[in-house]
Please model this.
Amino acid sequence: MKTPRRLLLALALVGAAGAAQAAGNCTVSLKGNDAMQFDLKEATVSAGCASITVELAHTGKLPATVMGHNVVVSTTADMAGVSRDAIRAGAASHYVPANDARVIAHTSVVGGGQTTQVRFPGNRLRAGGDYSFYCSFPGHSALMKGRLVVTR
Model:
């Protein structure tokens, strides 16, 4: 009689652990500094998340007008085009072209000591797709970029 209870308890714990692990793949937390670097070169999220959150903390001291950072998520193939068009979009648009279908999500631009975040539906990403995150402040995407790995 005790063996079936132990088995059920073990199965419940394994199931709970799997759910907890999947829930942990719904947020990407990045830090950007005054040396134009993100602290991560790769981040993993699950396409099964109802929503995905991208958080950015600017750990530097310089203001947004001089060393502003944001995070843009797009396919890797679209990164160069979005970054190029970001210059024309300007600071008022947080260096993100308005209504650009290539942009999956983006944060606002922040300066030293500030934070920002964006939430977007997880179904905007496809498991196994080729995605990148990057800063679209003029000239930053050459250094401030990383791969976004999407799992099931």
About this structure: The chain has a mean pLDDT of 89.
